[in-house]
């Protein structure tokens, strides 16, 4: 079963919309992350436990260095150096271009080894070599995925939604204009992907109560861990 996580004292939070603003076209940050950030968050897990489930070495996860101080050149290009932390009841992991959780899920076609029963998960994956991807797992273990701009409900096979969690998140996305049917558009069509991403991140953050500290992330001031590629 999942346990509650207390809010980390002294950490400023800035929502999630700023990540969406830079998801496609943002410039890289010198010491931290700004563009192509992939977010995976689990409500009710300890952050150290979560990164260990993703493949991190326990000793390194329990005594991490800051991302800005991590020797990323020593890590294989196929692997990931991730930041991790807490936001209220959420444990989160931040990676660039693609998320380790997504790769493990695709490889194993299941989430039981990664997320204990009763936990809630959301993943927003830039997946730079394929289509960007959003995944949401409710506390009943039901999972739904979609591309940015798509509805979580309007699919060829209607999802089972015993808890109403998909309907609630979909409604929040629609209200934010993050679903193409409710998206107001942009004067320049080239800006639409970025604006959809900004609205999607904002809707997910506000609905799920998930907010991340922009300054610490841009400057690499959160703990970091090496996550080996599962593929």
Q: How does this model look, in words?
A:
- The protein has 231 residues and is an alpha+beta fold.
- Helices cover 26% and strands 18% of the residues.
- Strands 6-5-4-1-3-2-7 form a seven-stranded antiparallel beta sheet, covered by helices on one side.
- The longest helix is centred in the last third of the chain and has 17 residues.
- It is globular and about 45 Å long.
- The two termini are 28 Å apart.
Summarize the structure.
With 231 residues, the protein is α+β, with helices and mostly antiparallel strands. The protein is built from seven helices and seven strands, in the order αβααββαβββαααβ. Helix 5 crosses helix 6.
Overall helicity? 25-40%
Structural class per helix/strand content?
A: alpha+beta
Q: Termini separation (Å)?
A: 28 Å
Shape: globular
Mean pLDDT: 90
What is the total tally of β strands?
A: 7
How much of the residues is beta strand, in percent? 15-25%
Summary keywords:
single chain; disordered N terminus; 231 residues; globular; alpha+beta; 18% strand
């Amino acid at each position: 079963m999942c346990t509650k996580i207390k809010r980390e004292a002294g950490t400023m939070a800035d929502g999630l919309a700023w990540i969406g603003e830079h998801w496609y076209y943002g410039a890289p940050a010198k010491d931290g992350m700004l563009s192509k950030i992939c977010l995976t968050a689990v409500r009710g897990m300890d952050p150290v436990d979560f990164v260990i489930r993703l493949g991190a070495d326990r000793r390194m996860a329990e005594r991490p260095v800051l991302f800005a101080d991590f020797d990323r050149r020593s890590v294989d290009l196929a692997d990931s150096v991730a930041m991790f932390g807490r936001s209220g009841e959420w444990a989160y992991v931040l990676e660039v271009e693609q998320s380790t959780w997504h790769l493990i899920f695709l490889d194993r076609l299941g989430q039981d080894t990664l997320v204990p029963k009763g936990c809630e998960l959301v993943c927003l994956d830039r997946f730079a070599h394929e289509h960007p991807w959003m995944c949401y797992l409710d506390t009943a273990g039901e999972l739904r995925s979609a591309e940015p701009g798509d509805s979580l409900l309007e699919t060829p096979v209607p999802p089972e939604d015993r808890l109403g969690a998909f309907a609630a998140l979909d409604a929040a996305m629609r209200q934010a204009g993050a679903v193409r049917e409710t998206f107001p558009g942009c004067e320049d069509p080239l800006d639409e992907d970025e604006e959809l991403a900004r609205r999607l991140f904002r809707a997910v953050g506000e609905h799920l109560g998930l907010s991340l500290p922009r300054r610490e992330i841009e400057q690499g001031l959160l703990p970091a861990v090496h996550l080996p590629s599962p593929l």
